[in-house]
Every structure is written in structure tokens, then in C-alpha cells.
Specification:
By secondary structure, the chain is an alpha+beta fold. It is built from eight helices and 19 strands. The chain has two domains: 129 residues, Creatine Amidinohydrolase, Chain A, domain 1, CATH 3.40.350; 245 residues, Alpha-Beta Complex (Creatine Amidinohydrolase).
């Protein structure tokens, strides 16, 4: 009989399988080499990966969960001889057939037993090396940036489609349901879907309610595919914004520009964070506005990896993705961007969404869904220049 302390071994097929049954992915060898260098620096024999973030990164985007609200159902042990994935007997066939990359040894454990995580001398846990593991996830490899850009474009288009057919009388919950469905159709997971109508503009994280959208609405989406998570926020108006609303939207782009401009390779996240926080006062917001909501940080295999603060000393690197989300006075802007040798590349972009120019960049405008007497949507305005 197989026991938790005597697991059986099975190998993932040589052809390899991922979340979409694809061929072996070339990035795995690079990531393994990074972990072996970590073991050398620490004088350790193995590292045990147990979080969704670390497993998504190391197992090439494999879906290691059943419930989005629960921890992963597998663990990975990386040592000097190879990779071992610990999985329960009721899940292992699906994992090998549909999720896991080739080249890993899968050790099967009875479903009613805990995974036998190694604890011998020379074993590192994620808690032991959290900051080091985080820094090993950057820079993103070319195959990762390709996936990220595709997910960003798909997610942005899904938001455009949903808000393009929304009406002021629709409930926040209805819009959330529609965008969640669109994300699932993309083969992605809607990790966060927030919708705040005109009556809830002061709510920073507007979990959807039965309230109607009203005059205006904000939608926030975090979607995951291949382990990578994009973040995007968009605003829609069903009646002409007030002068104060237009002004706040212009000013929040100024704060975002400060974050973008500070993304210089070699500086620290804390330096970028301080530059963005200072910009609130410079653009007519309360100088302490940044204290009322987190400002974002590095994007990748976690919602923020890490979230930026005044003491986050992680270095900014080319090939790193970011998602800043400045907000104030009812206005918000958020996109996932990639820092490249040529500058910032916006990943969550849909050409159909109206934009304005600010600081030499095209940034998302409000989608202006003013309705005529027949109930048809008036054309969205775009092409303005600001800043």
C-alpha cells in the first residue's frame, strides 16, 4: 500500500504538457539554473516550492489549484539531481496529462495524507528565501513576455466588449458576471473583478453590488493565465462628466506619469514609490492621498510581486512588468506595463478603447457612452492631448 511517507514515482511524459497541452517549454531550464545558483549561494541541497506564485513560475504556468480560494494541491522539490512534484493520487492523472511540464518526477501521495515535504538539513522553504525567490522571477523571459502581452491584449479587449454594451441601468453584479465570463472564455481566471457605479465612487475596492451603474462606473480586473496576472482598470460614463470629474481624471494621469518616469533600471522600487507619492500634491490632490490606497508595484506571478512601499528595496530591471494604480478624487488609472530596452510597453491595450495623450504616452480615456434618444451609443471621443 502506498503511504504518504513512501510515495510512488511517476514521470511526466516526455512530450510535455501544460495548461493547454502544449510542447515542452524552453524557459524551465533557465529557471532551474536560477534555483541551483540560489542553492549554491545558501549552501543548501534543495528548495521546496509551495505557493501559487512560485509554482506558477517554476512549473511553466501549470494550474496547481482546484479552488481559487485554497492553497495549491501540489508542491515542488528542486534539488541538485532534478525536480520532484508531490501530488495526490486523485489529481495526479489530470496534472500529468494536462498541466505539468516534461522532465519532472511526480511522486504520488494518498489524497487523505499530507504532502511529505522534506525537512532534512539543507532544505530551504519559501519563507527562508522569499525575497531571493521573488528576485529570481525577473527578468521575465521572452516566452513569458509573449504570454503576458497576449493576456493583456485579450483582457483589455474583454473589458472593452463588456463596457461597450453596458447601460446605466445595469447592476454592478451583472457587469461583473459578464466580464468574468469573458475572462473565463479566454482560458484565464478572473482573480479580481470590481465594479463601482456612480453611487460608490469613493469606494477604493468596489466589490460589485446590486446598485445600478448610474452616471459612471469603474471596472477593475485581475486575470491570470499561464500563471501570469494582468491588472487593468477602466472608466465608463453614461452622461457627460462634470468639470471636476474631467479634471480629476487628467490629474491622476499626472501621478501615473510620475511612476512611469521613475522606472529607471537600477533604481529601487522604494524610489519609484516615493516619486509617485510626491506627485499627488504636485497635481492638486491631498499630499497624503497615497495613504488611502496601495499604489501598485511589480506585476508577474502574483497580483503584486511585490507591492511597492517606502522601504521596498527590490531593484528595477529591464524585462520586468509593473502595474501602478494611482487613485484619488474618484479617478483611477491602471495598466500592466513592461519595461523594455526601448521604454515602457503597455500590455493591457485594446486599440478600440479611446485614449488621450499625456506626457508623450497614449493613456486610457473615459469611455463616453452618452445615449441618444433612440438608446444608441454615441461614438466615443478620443485623440485629445493633455499634459
Amino acid at each position: 500500500m502506498t503511504t504518504a511517507t513512501e510515495p510512488t514515482g511517476r514521470a511526466a511524459p516526455a512530450s510535455g504538457h501544460g495548461p493547454t497541452g502544449s510542447a515542452p517549454r524552453p524557459e524551465h531550464g533557465v529557471k532551474r539554473a536560477r534555483l541551483l545558483e540560489l542553492l549554491d549561494r545558501r549552501g543548501a541541497e534543495r528548495v521546496v516550492l509551495t505557493s501559487a506564485t512560485a509554482l506558477g513560475w517554476y512549473l511553466d504556468g501549470a494550474r496547481t489549484h482546484v479552488s481559487l480560494a485554497a492553497p495549491p494541491i501540489v508542491a515542488a522539490v528542486v534539488d541538485r539531481t532534478g525536480d520532484t512534484v508531490l501530488a495526490t493520487d486523485n489529481e495526479v492523472d489530470r496534472l500529468i496529462g494536462e498541466e505539468l511540464p516534461s522532465g519532472v518526477d511526480v511522486r504520488v501521495v494518498p489524497w487523505d495524507q499530507p504532502l511529505p515535504l522534506p525537512a532534512a538539513a539543507g532544505t530551504l522553504t519559501e519563507d527562508d528565501v522569499a525575497a531571493e525567490l521573488r528576485r529570481l522571477r525577473v527578468p521575465l523571459l521572452p516566452v513569458e513576455t509573449t504570454r503576458f502581452a497576449a493576456l493583456g491584449a485579450d483582457t483589455a479587449a474583454a473589458v472593452t466588449q463588456v463596457l461597450g454594451r453596458a447601460r446605466s441601468q445595469h447592476r454592478e453584479l451583472d457587469v461583473a458576471a459578464e466580464v468574468s465570463a469573458e475572462i473565463v472564455r479566454l482560458g484565464a481566471e478572473p482573480l479580481v473583478v470590481l465594479v463601482g457605479g456612480g453611487s460608490r465612487t469613493g469606494v477604493r475596492h468596489p466589490l460589485p453590488t446590486t446598485a445600478p451603474l448610474g452616471r459612471r462606473a469603474l471596472i477593475v480586473v485581475c486575470a491570470r493565465r499561464h500563471g501570469l496576472i494582468v491588472d487593468v482598470s477602466r472608466s465608463v460614463a453614461f452622461a457627460p462628466p462634470t468639470a471636476a470629474e474631467e479634471d480629476a481624471q487628467r490629474r491622476i494621469l499626472g501621478v501615473e506619469a510620475a511612476y512611469f518616469d521613475a522606472l529607471v533600471p537600477g533604481t529601487t522600487l522604494a524610489t519609484v514609490f516615493r516619486a509617485g507619492c510626491r506627485a499627488y500634491g504636485l497635481h492638486g490632490f491631498d499630499p497624503d492621498e497615497w495613504r488611502r490606497h496601495h499604489q501598485g508595484g511589480v506585476a508577474g506571478y502574483a497580483g503584486r510581486d511585490p507591492r511597492a512601499t517606502n522601504v521596498t528595496d527590490d531593484p528595477v530591471r529591464t524585462g520586468q512588468a509593473f502595474a501602478w494604480n494611482p487613485t484619488g478624487d474618484g479617478a483611477k488609472v491602471e495598466d500592466t506595463v513592461l519595461l523594455t530596452e526601448q521604454g515602457l510597453q503597455v500590455l493591457t491595450v485594446d486599440p478600440a478603447w479611446p485614449t488621450v495623450s499625456y506626457g508623450g504616452r497614449r493613456r486610457p480615456d473615459i469611455l463616453r457612452r452618452y445615449l441618444d434618444s433612440a438608446g444608441a451609443a454615441a461614438p466615443a471621443t478620443s485623440g485629445k492631448t493633455r499634459g
